[in-house]
Write a structure and sequence with these properties.
single chain, about 280 residues, alpha/beta, 60s Ribosomal Protein L30, Chain: A, Alpha/beta knot, 2 domains, 7-stranded parallel sheet, 11 strands, about 35% helix, elongated
Amino acid sequence: MNIDNLDDERLEDYAKLNDVHLRKSLEAERGLYMAESTKVIMRAIQEGHQPRSFLVVEKWIKDIEPWVEEATGAKDGGDIPIFIGTEDMLRKIAGYHMHRGAMASMHRPPLVDVRDAIHQARGGSGARRIFVLEALVDHTNIGAIFRSAAALGVDLVLVTDDCADPFYRRSVRVSMGTVFQVPWTRIHNWPSSIDVLKEEGFVTAALALNDEAIVLDEFSQMDACNSEDSRVALILGTEGDGLKQRTIAQSDYSVIIPMAGHVDSLNVAAASAVAAWQLRVRDS
């Protein structure tokens, strides 16, 4: 159905997309998130997420039809509306020019219990590598971390209650939709809940600069990281202050990435990629 007015009440899910406070309110109230671009929509639907509606530039309808059909059983979306707008409308809604313009309002899947998430990872075989994101607030960093997690074999991401939403539109976009591929859930009562990870057999490693930290290379060679059933949870801290002292104290190890060139540290997203590669499961 053609839409020629941004004030059309049928576009309420998409309204004022750049208003962060409004987005948070809408997303919490309606249990939705926004998928921007055909590739992101494709990945969401491939992971079984269900659309509420689509908003597409007419010339790109053919590109999105296979994913509309996969999600709804019909190329025309059946009961799920496909709104047709102009490129200028999508640019005004999204705040930037959208190549192959398509957006979708998606139902947000419910979060699962941490233990259940651990056991369900890797097709039910159980997670072996976990990221814990403590109090990260930059959506770009979160999206980049998920992309690294997907590419480098991290099975599960846990985010603390004071961490930003991985399904926020910028996180989704930066991750190229990999936030839908890597399972994630909230871990409450952090850092006391670190005990849940230990009870599930994980060695916990805080990526933190302190006097007792060991270098990543050394840590990765330990039996805890190399045994046949090794389980490692790497804890990453906020962009400014790093990890809380309580978190560091309750972790099994503190780990650092050695720096050259008089550089103090890496951006948290870059550090996550380096650590994920070094700690990857090396199944023979």
